[in-house]
Design goal:
alpha+beta; Jelly Rolls; 40% helix; binds adenosine-3',5'-cyclic-monophosphate
Length: 225
């Protein structure tokens, strides 16, 4: 529809009058004005036949982690309920070195890069993938984050916070012993990467067994177990 108006200052009133006339004209001839519309259908989503639910996937992933081996089936299922899913896009920073933090992450899908600043430059320490975890150091010891973790691709994670972890450890304190071994290994890798002489094995109190014992002691105090 095209029309011209000479009284420009009046065009809003004229436009509205024309639209009113068109509306009545259409109504008389049974023509509907096609308003933008959409139909929204709500229905309960069902997992595809044979597809594994996130809870089952998480349960299977936890079974694959040494740390959770001491848990009974019931304890493991209770632990699953403590995690929540979280998504990051490729390039997003999940953990910042030096920041406080008390959550533990398990990778459901995708890849992350672990790096640490050395001499002012980030140096890659590891790449972690589906079924692997990170963030246990700050969670278990209360120390600042030891490294930066960035999503190397889109990643789906399961996250557990300190309260959730406390319940799991309280149910089975043996977990703390295994955790301290893994923590000691990663801590050692960090120290070696940094060439940190204060953490070398030949320094009294820094051989792997003593490091593990110290970490275990700290975990027990931090979690009161
Ligand atoms: P946290 O210190 O809580 O946050 C950074 C995380 O990076 C750390 O816990 C570990 O989970 C992870 N991390 C540190 N060093 C290494 C390493 N050498 N290999 C794999 N992961 C590491």
């Amino acid at each position: 529809m095209r029309y011209w108006v000479s009284a420009y200052e009046d065009y809003r009133r004229i436009e509205s009058e024309i639209q009113r006339l068109v509306w009545y004209h259409f109504r008389r001839h049974g023509i509907e004005i096609p308003f933008p519309s959409r139909n929204v259908y709500l229905h309960e989503a069902r997992a595809a036949e044979g597809a594994e639910s996130p809870a089952k996937r998480l349960e299977r992933a936890l079974r694959g982690i040494d740390l959770f081996r001491p848990l009974s089936d019931d304890e493991l299922r209770a632990a699953v309920g403590r995690f929540r899913p979280l998504h990051y896009s490729g390039g997003e920073r999940i953990i910042e070195e030096g920041a406080p933090g008390d959550s533990f992450f398990l990778i459901d899908n995708g890849e992350v890069q672990v790096s640490k600043k050395m001499g002012g430059f980030p140096r890659e320490l590891a790449r972690l993938m589906e079924g692997q975890f990170f963030g246990e150091m700050a969670l278990l010891t209360g120390e600042p984050r030891a490294a930066t973790v960035v999503a190397a691709s889109d990643v789906d994670l399961f996250v557990l916070d300190k309260n959730g972890f406390q319940d799991i450890i309280a149910a089975n304190p043996e977990i703390a012993v295994d955790m301290s071994s893994i923590l000691a290994e990663r801590r050692e890798a960090l120290s070696q990467a940094q060439g940190d002489v204060t953490h070398r094995f030949d320094t009294p109190g820094n051989n792997p067994a003593e490091l593990k014992a110290r970490i275990l002691d700290r975990i027990r105090r931090y979690f009161g177990v």
